[in-house]
Write a structure and sequence with these properties.
disordered N terminus; single chain; Growth Hormone, Chain: A; elongated; 280 residues; two-stranded antiparallel ribbon; 4 strands; two-stranded antiparallel sheet
Length: 280
């Protein structure tokens, strides 16, 4: 197994993608390999290639992305325990108050339609920082809002901003890890994402700490959001990198067919020559 953990240039690999989604990882003599498979993607001979980064740098990106997914889901789901409090505070009916949970959940899914093309066009880092700013200041707006419409608008901003937290980590894992490393890292992110569903538990305890006040929950989330933004700014570089596409070598079947045709052509020429000699 190659020592790819050391972050050295791993450029010796014949792994290639025959068709989209199908990778030939057969090991050829001289290939860098892991678990009996040739490394894929084949990194460029460039220290700026994310595949060449040291392990601590890659894992830091994964941890930050996972925390972002956890916090965003905590924010969206956890505040639902305050629906009766919203109804009393803003003097609206229960169905109207429940919109502070239903509309953000809807926008949490729709936001990816805007942000995924954005990070594919402009890069992962600027999109992640932009989304975290929306998430942070939308959360702050929820804490200071004094009327229902303002509060609902801020909740929607939080959902739209943080919606990319479910797609961007997967893309970053795809950018910085080799094929054989991705499954384990995706599982780590998925655990963090699913644990975000427990957000209602700390939200309930915060309600007891600050009776009849939902603001503490959002102030705490704002503090975490700003800490996450600072960590992202310093520890998450741009992971988008365009490598040269490695062309798939001709298959053995195609080579055999070409060789067979060549032999057949030579044989036919020999037969034609013998016919000419006989006629003479």
């Amino acid at each position: 197994m190659a020592d790819h953990k050391a972050g050295r240039h791993l450029v010796h690999s014949h792994a290639h993608e025959d068709v989209p989604g199908t990778v030939d990882c057969k090991v050829v003599d001289g290939d860098d390999s892991a678990y009996g498979q040739a490394l894929f993607p084949v990194p460029a001979d460039d220290p700026n290639d994310p595949l060449q980064w040291p392990r601590w740098k890659k894992d830091s990106i994964l941890v930050i992305c996972s925390i972002y997914s956890f916090l965003a889901n905590c924010n969206i789901i956890g505040s639902s325990v305050y629906i009766p409090l919203y109804a009393a505070t803003f003097r609206v009916s229960f169905p109207i108050a429940s919109q502070t949970s239903s509309y953000p959940n809807l926008c949490f899914g729709l936001g990816t339609i805007l942000l995924i093309p954005m990070y594919m066009k402009f890069g992962r880092r600027p999109t992640m920082l932009f989304s975290q700013l929306l998430y942070a200041f939308g959360t702050l707006g929820c804490a200071v809002a004094n009327d229902y419409n303002s509060f609902l608008a801020c909740r929607i901003i939080v959902a739209l901003g943080s919606s990319v937290c479910e797609a961007l980590p997967v893309q970053c894992v795809n950018d910085i890890y080799f094929l054989h490393e991705r499954g384990k890292r995706i599982s780590y992110y998925t655990v963090a994402l699913c644990l975000g569903g427990i957000g209602a538990l700390p939200a309930g305890y915060m309600l007891n700490a600050a009776p009849h006040n939902h603001k503490l929950f959002f102030y705490v989330h704002f503090a975490f959001a700003m800490a996450l933004f600072i960590a992202t700014f310093f520890l998450v570089p741009e992971t988008m990198y365009k490598r040269k596409v490695r062309m798939s070598p001709p298959s053995s079947v195609a080579s055999d067919e070409a060789l067979h045709e060549k032999h057949a052509h030579v044989a036919s020429q020999a037969v034609d020559t013998s016919h000419v000699d006989t006629a003479n």
